[in-house]
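This section describes the prediction task in plain terms. A model, or a person checking by hand, is given the sequence of a single protein chain and must write out its three-dimensional structure as a string of tokens. No templates, partner chains or ligands are provided. The sample shown here is typical of the held-out split.
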Amino acid sequence: MKCPFCGYHDSKVVDSRPSEDYVSIRRRRECLSCKKRFTTFEVMETLPIIVIKKDGSRQSFDRNKLLNSMLRACEKRTVSIDTLSKIADEIEQTLQNEMNREIPSNRIGELVMDKLKDVDEVSYVRFASVYRQFKDISTFMAELNKLLEEK
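The expected answer:
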């Protein structure tokens, strides 16, 4: 690691610990030449995820779009933003762990529904009604009956 003070190319790690959010590693380093200390952060490299939409178009995965869709489904419900943020993190991590860099949008929708079903059933049905594009009351009732059977 190049020293930001003198430009020397070698330093030693004095202290290492996880960051507050546990997403990166915070390292205190000391330059072997000038003895000044500086902090670096090590983060895991993530590869971009491409979402294949229903119409065949492709766009980059956007965690905020995922979170906003869940927020709409959970509107006026008792689901906290922290819970939804955790779900978004879990889904993003699941997608990162898969070997495929191109993910169909229906795969993401199914992951969201699986998570919402355990958190809030009303939010699950709201999300499913938009995601599965219920055309009439019978498809809506079929989804509700399926949910009741699983209980």
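For orientation: The chain has two domains: 11-43, 50-150.
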